[in-house]
């Protein structure tokens, strides 16, 4: 018993130490990410762009991809995720960075949430956080690195160059950033293959350093090309995982909780039903806030800022549901469960 408690406390101390290290190193990861993305952008436009076919078509498309990549990264790093101790955010300013809202229809409520008659939105249940004492609505979790409760918390992201939590107000930009990063890396991988073969001397005559007609050094382009291949695969998997969660109406942390709920419900011969899951198409539309109830579809291709469909204190649910099915009162997982309880003697 004493041994198990000692091991448990050692692991928890090591975990907290890792949190402090990654939290402190966050700005360095941001700087590193900016350098790598900048090098990739320079390599593409210096080496690959001049050789692309149909420059009047390919040029604007490449600029649009690069703009989305950089702007969504800027948003996900600078836009706060949304904390429970902050007041609900006001209507966005009319600037070039913000998309224009459509005019509300008759009978549509625009304060806090957006809906039509077909979308059922209910107020979130509120509990008290035992770590910071704040009143937190559903889908809110306490971040042990930020030490604050985050609305629709997905995860804290220091290592990948975000250096803050991903939550209600920046999760859309996080997914869009990943998507455009995959598109950019895949484009560089496909279109840059002839150039990297030439840089390696595999395109015919023996390699001559003086034959390289670009400003970017050959070794730099080769390294960025290899990095692009790796990032296209690695970030592509991560992006698909997040989109899978979006299509099922759950965040990363909720996906883990729902697996536990499914096992508990199955042990009682019941079926767990996620009340936030409105179907893949509706879930995607609500997450990106586009379509009939949100902004125009062009906001997926032009890097505008837009607000989420809710203020984090009300949520769209399946019709007839006010909570998940298959989870009984008292079984809901909390942030205290992340810390775990010390193992007891058998």
TrEMBL record:
Any notes on this protein's domains?
A: The DHHC domain is required for palmitoyltransferase activity.
* InterPro entries associated with the record: Palmitoyltrfase_DHHC, PFA4/ZDH16/20/ERF2-like
Q: Where in the cell does this protein reside?
A: Membrane
Membrane topology type: Multi-pass membrane protein
Q: What is its EC number?
A: 2.3.1.225
Asked whether the keyword Membrane is assigned, the reply is yes
Q: What is this protein called?
A: Palmitoyltransferase
UniProt main location, coarse: membrane
Its Gene Ontology molecular function terms? Answer: protein-cysteine S-palmitoyltransferase activity
**Which keywords, in A-to-Z order, does the entry hold?**
Acyltransferase, Lipoprotein, Membrane, Palmitate, Transferase, Transmembrane, Transmembrane helix
Q: Where is this region: Disordered?
A: 327-346
Q: Which family does it belong to?
A: Belongs to the DHHC palmitoyltransferase family.
Segments of skewed composition (Acidic residues): 332-346
Output the PANTHER family linked to this UniProt entry: PALMITOYLTRANSFERASE ZDHHC16 (PTHR12246)
Q: Which reaction does it catalyse?
A: L-cysteinyl-[protein] + hexadecanoyl-CoA = S-hexadecanoyl-L-cysteinyl-[protein] + CoA
What sequence ranges are listed for the domain Palmitoyltransferase DHHC? Answer: 128-256
- GO CC, alphabetical: membrane
Q: Organism, per UniProt?
A: Mycena alexandri
What top-level branch of life does the organism fall under?
Eukaryota
Residue ranges spanning the membrane: these are: 21-47, 53-71, 177-199, 219-241
